[in-house]
């Protein structure tokens, strides 16, 4: 049995950061990974999806300004777009990231890791051999999530696309049906439509992005419509079948229609990758999320040895939040190893705070939408004394100069009792870049009477902040 201070199961962004930080604090660390170091984000999610989306966004931006519009006369080149994506992902080659672990002083063990009791992990290699690891200080679960398939008859027999196939496909499907109305569904509909596919969204709900402010879903709906995407609200797929000869797929829906397409993308949510993690060996239910405290310690297990970082704990399933949690978790483990208390609650520098009510989100559709903190509804449900203000970003001088047809929307949610911003939603070009200002204001709990003195440069789209504060009455 090999012994390390910290054993990390999962080598995605969360696992890399927590292991690297632990090693940097003088602790021995090992990462167990069955697939590619770098995880879903690097090869089959965030990075390739943005690589697919960016060329269409650049083309649209050039065409939004008179004088530049006339020079853009051709469609995107799919082969070059896909090749550029592959340069970012290396087609799954994790050599660079494995080398980074080695340079950080972290051992990499290839294989499938499972808990085997307190502080123990068993790793099954590709050849079936089993290696035993023991953690002196902590085991950290960073296994992330996997796609959840909707209950559609035949879906498991047609070679359905999930985010993995949608971000790594080597050719543009002629016709794509997307089941879902969330972030992955909207982004992939945007990307593949920009590359020439005919795209239809089947959305069970009556709106897109239902956990966002309504304006976000409304603007993305308009944008997808302008791109030529067909959206069918209130419609669910019942059954699918692939023709053995033509390889086309027929999708039957609950409104009595049938769609014929080349591929079906299921994008209806994700579930934790904990079904084969050995949770039963430490008294935890198999397949569940792993609830944690503000140091990422799993609260249902006695002691301070088991931690869960990133998507697997269900707090904020986003890569940037996984890395944020990993930094906090590694610091807490190091403090405990040094015999110092590392109690959660926001008072310690390593305790997680942004994960509660200041999570930034970005969707790279056209238009872009981004948010930080709470929606108005969530703030009211939390019992806050809420006042919300809205402003059309189109009316900002900097926005009009940025694009001739700039269209955007901004909404601010204010806690009246404290006089601070607790939520912000932006839509339109540059929204994903502008949102960090809101994140800083929310995390810093900047009083509005101070925030009014943060003067945006003229003429920039950031002037929307001045207009929002004026709308509030400052």
UniProtKB/TrEMBL annotation:
Cofactors named for this entry: FAD
Keyword Flavoprotein: yes
Domain FAD/NAD(P)-binding span(s) in chain numbering: 4-326
Superkingdom to which the source organism belongs: Bacteria
Cited Gene3D superfamilies: 3.30.390.30, FAD/NAD(P)-binding domain
Record's keyword terms, sorted: FAD, Flavoprotein, NAD
Pfam families registered for this protein in UniProt: Pyr_redox_2, Pyr_redox_dim
Signal peptide span: none
Residues annotated as domain Pyridine nucleotide-disulphide oxidoreductase dimerisation: 359-465
PANTHER family with a match to the protein in the record: DIHYDROLIPOYL DEHYDROGENASE, MITOCHONDRIAL, DISULFIDE OXIDOREDUCTASE
Family: Belongs to the class-I pyridine nucleotide-disulfide oxidoreductase family.
Name of this chain's protein: Oxidoreductase
């Amino acid at each position: 049995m090999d012994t390390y201070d910290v054993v990390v199961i999962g080598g995605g962004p969360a696992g890399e950061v927590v292991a690297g930080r632990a090693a940097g604090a003088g602790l021995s660390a090992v990462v167990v990974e069955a697939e590619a170091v770098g995880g879903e984000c690097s090869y089959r999610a965030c990075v390739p999806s943005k690589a697919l989306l960016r060329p269409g966004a650049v083309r649209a931006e050039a065409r939004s300004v008179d004088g530049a519009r006339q020079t853009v006369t051709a469609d995107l080149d799919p082969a070059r777009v896909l090749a550029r994506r592959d340069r970012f992902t290396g087609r799954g080659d994790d050599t660079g990231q494995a080398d980074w672990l080695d340079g950080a002083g972290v051992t990499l063990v290839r294989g499938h890791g499972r808990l085997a009791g307190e502080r123990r992990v068993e790793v099954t290699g590709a050849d079936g051999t089993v290696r035993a690891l023991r953690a002196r200080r902590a085991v950290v679960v960073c296994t992330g999530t996997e796609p959840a398939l909707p209950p559609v008859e035949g879906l498991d027999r047609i070679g359905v696309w999930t985010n993995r196939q949608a971000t790594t496909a080597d050719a543009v499907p002629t016709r794509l049906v997307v089941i879902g109305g969330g972030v992955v569904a909207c982004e992939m509909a945007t990307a593949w439509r920009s590359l020439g596919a005919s795209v239809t969204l089947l959305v069970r709900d009556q709106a897109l992005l239902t956990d966002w402010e309504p304006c976000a879903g409304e603007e993305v709906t308009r944008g997808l419509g302008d791109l030529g995407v067909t959206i069918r609200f209130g419609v669910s797929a019942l059954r699918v079948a692939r023709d053995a000869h033509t390889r086309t797929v027929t999708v039957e829906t609950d409104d009595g229609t049938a769609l014929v397409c080349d591929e079906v993308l299921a994008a209806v949510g994700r579930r934790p990758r904990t079904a084969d993690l050995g949770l039963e060996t430490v008294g935890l239910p198999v397949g569940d999320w792993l609830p944690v405290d503000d140091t990422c310690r799993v609260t249902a297990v006695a002691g301070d040895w088991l931690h869960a970082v990133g998507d697997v704990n269900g707090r904020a399933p986003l890569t940037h939040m996984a890395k944020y949690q990993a930094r906090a978790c590694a610091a807490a483990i190091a403090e405990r190893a040094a015999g110092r208390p590392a109690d959660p609650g926001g008072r310690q520098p390593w305790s997680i705070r942004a994960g509660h009510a200041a999570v930034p989100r970005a969707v790279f559709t056209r238009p872009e939408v981004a948010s930080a903190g709470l929606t108005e509804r969530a703030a009211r449900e939390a019992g806050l004394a809420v006042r919300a203000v809205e402003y059309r970003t189109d009316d900002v001088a900097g926005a009009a100069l940025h694009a001739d047809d700039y269209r955007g929307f901004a909404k601010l949610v204010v806690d009246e009792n404290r006089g601070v911003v607790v939520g912000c939603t932006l839509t339109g070009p540059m929204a994903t870049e502008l949102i960090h200002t809101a994140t800083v204001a929310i995390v810093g709990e900047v009083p509005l009477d101070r925030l009014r003195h943060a003067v945006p440069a003229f003429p920039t789209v950031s002037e929307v902040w001045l207009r929002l504060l004026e709308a509030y009455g400052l």
